[in-house]
Amino acid sequence: MAASVAKGASLSHISRESSDIRRLANFYKEIFGFEEIESPDFLEFKVIWLNLASVQIHLIERNPSSRLPEGPWSATSPVADPSHLPRGHHICFSVSNFESVVRALKEKEIKVFERSLPDGKVKQVFFFDPDGNGLEIGSLAPEK
């Protein structure tokens, strides 16, 4: 095995760009329990930093002159279907209360795609945040 160039590397954060960072922060706080932490003042754009255990998400105010659609899909894209996410661009969180989380997502009228692996041990649900970023929640099913 070759030695890595970056010594002691670890994941620092995941960033998401949004035209409404407050809406996105509230979503991640409500669904996953992220807590808002102190964030620096970048002067030219606003940020909100969130933390959950050892994972940080940095929400960054979208450049208003950007021509790219927000998130991996936009409101006009035909790919706003969570069944496209199992192989695609997404962040995955593991939870201990999988079934109740899926129920809560449905109660909030969040469109989801559920699947279990053939052995039944791994359950997954895929969905989008308010900006169209792909998310997965996974859980190991109890041993039979």
Notes on the protein architecture:
It holds the Pfam family Glyoxalase. InterPro entries: Glyas_Bleomycin-R_OHBP_Dase (IPR029068), Glyas_Fos-R_dOase_dom (IPR004360), VOC_core (IPR037523). With 144 residues, the chain is of the alpha/beta class. It folds into 2 domains: 51 residues, 2,3-Dihydroxybiphenyl 1,2-Dioxygenase, domain 1 (Roll), CATH 3.10.180.10; 63 residues, Roll (2,3-Dihydroxybiphenyl 1,2-Dioxygenase, domain 1). Helix content is 15%, strand content 30%. The chain has a 4-stranded mixed sheet with strand order 1-4-3-2, covered by helices on one side. A 4-stranded mixed sheet has the order 5-8-7-6, with no helix packed on it. The model has no long low-confidence stretch (mean pLDDT 83).
Please write out the topology:
Layout: E1 14-18, H1 21-32, E2 35-37, E3 47-52, E4 55-61, E5 91-94, H2 98-107, E6 113-116, E7 122-128, E8 134-140
Parallel strand pairs: 1-4, 5-8
Antiparallel strand pairs: 2-3, 3-4, 6-7, 7-8
Q: What fold name stands as the CATH topology of the largest domain?
A: 2,3-Dihydroxybiphenyl 1,2-Dioxygenase, domain 1
The beta-strand count equals 8
The ordered H/E elements are EHEEEEHEEE
Q: What is the CATH superfamily of the largest domain?
A: 2,3-Dihydroxybiphenyl 1,2-Dioxygenase, domain 1
